[in-house]
Design a protein that fits this description.
The protein is an alpha+beta fold. Helices cover about 40% and strands about 25% of the residues. The protein has 14 helices and 18 strands. Strands 6, 7, 8, 9, 10 and 11 form a six-stranded mixed sheet that branches. A five-stranded antiparallel sheet has the order 2-1-5-4-3, sandwiched between helices. α8 packs antiparallel against α9 and α11 packs antiparallel against α13. It is rod-shaped, with a radius of gyration of 46 Å.
Length: about 525
């Protein structure tokens, strides 16, 4: 069958009645609204579908027009645009709303085109109106969902940002704070302007279509504009943002966890080193016992003024020195919490200073004021040793690079209500006072207070003095004492540590001759030293 034969059943061109019947039948059964209008835009015909869509009555009226059913908010704009289109003889296309008599709204898409016959001038308009309410409701729901997402993401304390095509689309305030970026004008920036190229490379993505299984986390490092390093854990997933595919990234700051884990590893290493040091010290102590024992046995057999006698004496002196070092290693090896015992602070301090002398720079002079034995204190030797080392290290750092004088004092002191006043938060009683002074410049000349705590000393950049001295203050507080520091322009800083002394027997309260008291303290010192050595 030819094309001419297939088109033959259609009414001939001159059969206007049949053609009109076909058009009316198609218009009446169409699933879209159809209307006709004249050149001025006045409605000539509306099909039944458009009537139901616009909520018009079933009986046509002379003044009936689809413009009469527009929603009040759309009335002026759509009527103006329709008049302009018909006045200029061009097509019309617009989305708007019909408000029906029952008050409901229907979103529609209307299109109208000039009606021409054989290429002649337009004789009117033919228009089609499609009901797009379901689609519009879906878009509104999507927009509402995106608005809720933006609100929740903006208020979330967790850093969140979204990007697509190497462009940042969204970042909440928590993310801007984490990355040290301005909280405004971030959207639209290139990712390369905000992050290093490798920061977001090869991120595993979670796709909504693949179920609820989360994507794998990835750890990355980021250097902020102020130079600080942060460790991050990133989780990325595909989302629809503003109607387009995008990638959402959730960032978690794990810098503290990483630093804590590193500190824990260092603590485990130090514990292993301490255990090893304790074992080596015990073995070395056994060797020293044999050396010193046989030297003591050989010394009486030698001529007192002979060279061999002098050599053996040097062996004994060196062995005692090594024994003191072994004692320090044993103290370092004690890691148990709360293992307190009577400690003679003067012995421990002298040994600490002996170790420090070889490490001090040449422009730092050490002055010791340890007149004799001090009252014993009940303390953990390892922690008190740390207190001494940290205080001395702090004073040494305060005098860099110019150097100065490092002065160390140790004495007994009795505090009562009259002498204590309100300066020290201590009960009246006997204390051992450790004083460490330096001549470092720690306050400025224009400082009106001229008195600062050690946590605010002006030490060289990069030092951890504040943290170290905070640890000193904590240890001293746990031992029932306190710490006081004063800084004066041109004179330096003085740090005083007060530790409670072990209660002395009642007989000690009566005044004894100086020689007897000295001998008692000396005997006690030797007793405590032997106990330290045995431990």
């Amino acid at each position: 069958m030819s094309a001419q034969e297939s088109a033959a059943p259609f009414p001939p061109a001159g059969d206007f009645r049949s053609i009109e019947a076909v058009v009316r039948t198609l218009s009446g059964q169409a699933s879209i609204g159809i209307f006709l209008s004249d050149l001025e835009g006045h409605t000539l015909y509306l099909n039944e579908r458009l009537r139901r869509m616009a909520g018009l009555s079933g009986t046509p009226t002379p003044s009936e027009c689809w413009l009469n059913s527009l929603a009040p908010e759309d009335q002026g704009l759509i009527a103006t645009e329709w008049s302009e289109a018909t006045g200029q003889g061009r097509s019309f296309s617009r989305e708007f709303r019909f408000q029906r008599p029952d008050g409901s709204f229907r979103w529609v898409m209307a299109e109208a085109f000039p009606l021409r016959v054989d290429g002649s001038l337009s004789s009117g308009y033919v228009g089609m109106v499609r009901d797009i309410t379901p689609r519009q409701l879906a878009l509104e729901a999507l927009h509402a969902c995106e608005d809720r997402y933006r609100t929740l993401a903006a208020l979330s304390p967790h850093p969140i940002f979204v990007y697509a095509d190497e462009t940042l689309l969204f970042m909440n305030d928590a993310g801007a704070t984490l990355f040290n970026l301005p909280t405004s004008s971030l959207e639209g920036h290139s990712l390369l302007d905000l992050f290093p190229k490798e920061f977001l490379q090869d991120l595993p993505l979670a796709h909504p279509a693949h179920g609820t299984e989360p994507a794998a986390t990835v750890e990355r490092q980021f250097i902020r504009s102020d130079g600080t390093r942060i460790d991050l854990e990133l989780v990325a997933g595909q989302v629809i943002f503003d109607g387009h595919p995008a990638i959402q990234v959730l960032a978690t700051d794990i810098t503290l966890q990483k630093d804590t884990a590193a500190q824990l590893r260092r603590a485990h290493k130090m514990a292993a080193v301490a255990t090893l040091a304790g074992g080596i010290a015990h073995e070395f102590n056994n060797c020293l016992t044999a050396i010193m024992g046989f030297s003591d046995l050989a010394l009486p057999l030698l001529v007192p003024d002979s060279r061999v006698h002098g050599h053996v004496q040097q062996v004994i002196l060196a062995s005692k020195r090594a024994r003191d070092l072994v004692t320090q290693m044993l103290m370092f090896g004690r890691q148990a919490e709360g293992t307190k015992q009577p400690v003679s602070l003067d012995i421990l301090l002298k040994e600490t200073l002996r170790l420090l002398k070889g490490k001090l720079p040449g422009n730092v002079s050490l002055r010791e004021w340890i007149p004799g034995a001090t009252n014993p204190i009940y303390a953990d030797p390892t922690q008190i040793h740390q207190v001494c080392m940290k205080l001395l290290a702090h004073s040494e750092l305060a005098m860099k690079p110019d150097g100065g004088i490092l002065e160390v004092r140790l004495d007994n002191i009795h505090l009562n209500n009259a002498t204590n006043g309100h300066d020290l938060p201590l009960r009246p009683g006997h204390y051992v006072r450790l004083t460490v002074s330096d001549t470092g410049e720690e306050v400025s000349a224009d400082d009106p207070s001229r008195k600062l705590g050690p946590l605010f000393a002006n030490l060289p950049a990069g030092t951890q003095a504040g943290t170290e001295l905070a640890g000193v203050q904590q240890i001293v507080s746990e031992h029932g004492g306190t710490l006081r520091a004063t800084s004066t322009v041109g004179q330096g800083t003085t740090i005083e540590v007060y530790l409670p002394a072990i209660a002395l027997p009642e007989s000690a309260n009566t005044p004894d001759p100086p020689q007897e008291r000295a001998s008692d303290f000396t005997g006690q010192k030797e007793f405590l030293a032997e106990r330290d050595k045995e431990r």
